[in-house]
């Protein structure tokens, strides 16, 4: 199966040999692709809507994979049982919805080895949730396709000693350079910054342009909400400026 560059990059984060649960599967492209490539032995394709799930079922049958890919009508992880999947993949939805799905499925995730996530918005909220709930990002990527940038990540369970050390770091964090660096990592990706991802400078420049455009459009608006939004955008511009310095080798 031929899939988009974004979906290939997301699929590429799934560890070989893992049983997959694809939440919000839509057409089941990723499970089909991973089964065909021999990356995963079996998969559960789940979606909250009957229409996409019917299309997924048709695609699975077309490729002769009904014995390896099961479909389930499910609100998030509701229909998944603990221990059924090693990898939970969620791609192509808003970050806040993604956080809600992860939070509501906490018990199910006890048997999960890794999360592969590609949020479309509120990416800082996703990274913060992972950090606060015992997950560590061990891989990140950034893809540009059809005029849009798509950040994505894989997270694994933190080891206990590392979690204690990290919690101590958080407790001691203030407005120092360490605290600023941590905020930059939450906003723009710890590994994207650390490894100087080649697309990151362009991504940050684009975000900066968008911020400035919104600020210009708000000229003359002096409501309390407008002033609060302006302050948020100015802070964002400051963080973007700092991140661009880190992003360049």
Structure report:
This protein is of the alpha/beta class. Helices cover 48% and strands 19% of the residues. It is built from ten helices and seven strands. The chain has helices at residues 5-11, 29-36, 50-62, 95-104, 123-132, 160-172, 177-188, 190-194, 200-217, 224-247, and strands spanning 20-23, 43-47, 69-73, 87-93, 114-119, 135-145, 148-157. The protein has a seven-stranded mixed β-sheet with strand order 3-2-1-4-5-7-6, with helices on both faces. Helix 1 (5-11) packs across helix 2 and helix 4 (95-104) runs parallel beside helix 5 (123-132). It is elongated and about 60 Å long. The two termini are 37 Å apart.
Main sheet? 7 strands, mixed
Shape: elongated
Count of extended strands: 7
The string of secondary-structure elements, in order, is HEHEHEEHEHEEHHHHH
Helix content: 40-55%
Give the helix/strand class. alpha/beta
Average pLDDT, rounded to a whole number, is 92
Beta-strand content bin: 15-25%
């Amino acid at each position: 199966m031929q899939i988009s560059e974004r979906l290939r990059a997301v699929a590429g984060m799934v560890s070989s040999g893992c049983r997959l649960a694809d939440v919000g599967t839509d057409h089941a492209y990723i499970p089909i692709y991973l089964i065909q490539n021999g990356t995963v032995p079996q998969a559960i394709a789940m979606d909250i809507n009957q229409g996409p799930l019917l299309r997924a079922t048709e695609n699975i049958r077309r490729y002769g994979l009904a014995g390896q890919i099961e479909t389930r009508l499910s609100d998030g992880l509701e229909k998944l049982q603990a221990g059924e999947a090693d990898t939970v993949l969620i791609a192509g939805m808003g970050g806040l919805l993604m956080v809600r799905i992860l939070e509501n499925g906490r018990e199910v995730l006890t048997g999960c080895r890794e999360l592969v996530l590609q949020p479309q918005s509120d990416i800082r909220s996703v990274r913060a949730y992972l950090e606060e709930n015992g997950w560590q990002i061990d891989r990140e990527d950034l893809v540009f396709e059809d005029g849009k940038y798509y950040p994505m990540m894989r997270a694994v369970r933190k080891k206990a000693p590392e979690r204690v050390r990290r919690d101590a770091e958080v407790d001691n964090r203030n407005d120092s350079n360490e605290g600023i660096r941590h905020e930059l990592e939450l906003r723009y990706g710890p590994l994207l910054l650390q490894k100087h991802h080649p697309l990151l400078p362009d991504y940050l420049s684009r975000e900066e342009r968008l911020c400035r455009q919104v600020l210009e459009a708000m000229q003359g608006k002096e409501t309390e909400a407008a002033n609060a939004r302006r302050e948020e955008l100015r802070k964002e511009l400051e963080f973007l400026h700092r991140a661009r310095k880190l992003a360049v080798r």
